[in-house]
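Hmm, how's this folded?
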Amino acid sequence: MISQFWPSAHPARWTFPRRNATTSGLAQGTLVVEANSHSGAKMTARLAIEQGRRVWLPTSLLAEQQWARGYLARGATPVNDVDDVLAWLAPADRVVAATRRRIAQLALL
């Protein structure tokens, strides 16, 4: 677990925005499954966009929430199912494999 707060710190309303910024900043992307206009998930999606991270929004959410449609113009990606998200993540596996090959090559030098 990673946190910018001491282990003894209790959750408080003012800590959630900082926690959401850390969560979105560490992730490759953020999938928002459900969120109203005042939710923490919406805040996390906004922070992810600001941090240059990928944000995926289900088409069902786009149909229901005006804020979600606005996030499309800011770079969010609509998805129909989990396969859409996995297709984007697949290149990460290739990056890991290429990194391992390069490390092995350097070890032989």
Notes: The first strand starts at residue 29 and ends at 31. Helices lie at 16-26, 40-50, 59-64, 66-73, 82-108. Residues 82-108 form the longest helix (27 residues).
